[in-house]
Amino acid sequence: MIDTIIYDMGNVLIEWNPEKFLHLIETDEARIAKLRTAIFTSGYWPRQDTGELDADKAYHMSLALLDDSYQESLRQIYYHWYEYADVFTKMQDYAQELKKQGYKLFVLSNTAASYYDLAKKGYLPIDEILDGKILSYEVEMVKPDVAIYQYLLDKYGLEAQNCVFLDDIKGNIEAAQSLGMQGIQVISENQALADLKVLLSKYGRLSEQ
């Protein structure tokens, strides 16, 4: 029986679309290309998720690849990207329903300290009802390394066969499945909600009543 729902953050609870964010912040394609290279191609952004860099260090390392005219745009990406993102409200509202039905709820995400900014500013209302969370930068492990999934299971005493994991990346789903979890790849919010409801109707807490 599935009694535990585990959510990724980006593109599951809130949109993660750096191309959209870059194009909302800048309009000139040449400048966008330079920002993309300095932030993402450089590898500085993902090193926040591993805990190697905090946002301030990554920001200044990216800025060193640019001239000062990029300061504000760079700051918007590093410190305010979520203000340009759509919140997956239906997914988070449904989590509230699942909590009332007795499901345990967790977040397992490749993310940085900005997670707490999102929660504090109301972009992740689900955070208030979570039974726990594993954030990659805090444990210095990232998906799809199975070690981070096992860490979640061990820390909270979970049985893999009782869990379903939602993520937008196929490889991350496959890693969860390799440990015995159910997995739902999130292509869209509506699709993922429909798939989750079908799965829980068959194997969830209320299916045996």
Description:
With 209 residues, the protein is an alpha/beta fold. The chain folds into two domains: 4-15 and 86-203, 3-Layer(aba) Sandwich (Rossmann fold); 18-84. The chain is 49% helix and 11% strand. The protein has helices at residues 18-25, 29-41, 46-49, 55-63, 71-80, 89-100, 114-120, 136-139, 146-156, 170-178, 189-203, and strands at residues 4-7, 104-109, 132-135, 163-167, 182-185. A five-stranded parallel β-sheet has the order 3-2-1-4-5, sandwiched between helices. Strand 2 (104-109), helix 7 (114-120) and strand 3 (132-135) form a beta-alpha-beta unit. Helix 4 packs antiparallel against helix 5. The radius of gyration is 18 Å and the shape is elongated. It starts with a strand and ends in a 6-residue tail after the last helix.
Descriptive labels:
single chain, 209 residues, Rossmann fold, 49% helix, alpha/beta
